[in-house]
Amino acid sequence: MNMLRKHWQDLGLIIALLVCIYVTMNWGTLPRINSILWLSFVAILLHQFEEYRWPGYFAGLFNKALFHSDTPERYPLNQQSAMIINLIIAYVFYLPAVFFPSIVWLGLAPILMGFFQIIWHGFFANIKAKSIYNPGLFSAIFLHLPVGIWYIKYAYEQNILTPTNWILSTIYFVVAVYVLIVKGNMWLRNKNSSHSFSQIQLGSYTKK
Q1: How would you write the pLDDT of the chain (208 residues) with one tens digit per residue?
Q2: What is the DSSP string of 139-195?
Q3: What is the pTM of this model?
Q4: How far apart are the C-alpha atoms of 155 and 166, rounded to whole Å?
Q5: What is the CA radius of gyration of the chain?
Q6: Rounded distance, CA 8 to CA 93, Å?
Q7: How many other β-carbons are positioned within 10 Å of the β-carbon of residue 7?
Q8: Element at 114 (helix H, strand E)
Q9: Nearest in space to 144 (alpha carbons), one of 176, 118, 170
Q10: What angle do helix axes 145-157 and 32-52 make, rounded to 10 degrees?
Q11: What CA–CA distance (Å, rounded) separates 111 from 60?
Q12: Which long-range contacts (CB under 8 A, 24 or more apart) does 100-105 make?
């Protein structure tokens, strides 16, 4: 468990590379919407790698710049909670859409999550940190955004984006953000957690 806690984002990178190889090798035979949804899944895995491995100091920014924590290495976010929340987002929220591409709202909700990442990293986090970049912003702009636009464009061309799908996907997305990101970080916080982030994951956001 400790190995997974330290390297879940590295495992995600490996899976992302394997998915890219699979999609490339089967580009001519995979239905286009399947390919787009696989790339959406890749986007969240690389997004998480950017946040927690390279450059990887999202945890420090989150705890110190956003919550002004006195113990940014473990509170409110810690290695355990970061692993749980991000694994659920990637493998429970994003991945099912790949296997059920005909359920449009199931695929559109992760696309909305990707757009949310652009707003969160591009504006909210940068304003709080008084910066022009934070880990997660690059993948949000150069992966989530183009994949999301591609999905919506394709879905419109196929006449599968109905008002009902927009409503259901928006509800699903909002619930996921609230439960996993807003409440999840609060439910799993622990001032005495032994699962501290590394110095790299803190960056310059230390106790001082």
Answers
A1: 778 888 999 999 999 999 999 999 999 999 999 999 999 999 999 999 999 999 999 999 999 999 999 999 999 999 999 999 999 999 999 999 999 999 999 999 999 999 999 999 999 999 999 999 999 999 999 999 999 999 999 999 999 999 999 999 999 999 999 999 989 888 999 999 999 999 999 998 876 5
A2: HIIIIIHHHHHHHHHHHHHTT---HHHHHHHHHHHHHHIIIIIIIHHHHT--TT-S-
A3: 0.96
A4: 11
A5: 17
A6: 16
A7: 14
A8: helix 104-119
A9: 118
A10: 160
A11: 26
A12: 101/31, 101/33, 101/34, 101/37, 104/155, 104/160, 104/161, 104/162, 104/165, 104/169, 105/164, 105/165, 105/166, 105/168, 105/169, 105/172
Q: CA of 15: how far to CAs of 21, 61, 114, in Å?
A: 10, 26, 19
CA dist 56 and 123 (Å) reads: 19
The CB-based long-range contact list for 7-11 (8 Å cut-off, 24+ gap) reads: 8/83, 8/86, 8/87, 9/48, 9/49, 9/51, 9/52, 9/53, 9/86, 10/49, 10/53
Please report, as a single letter, which amino acid is at residue 61. L
Residue written as token pair 């920014």: 61
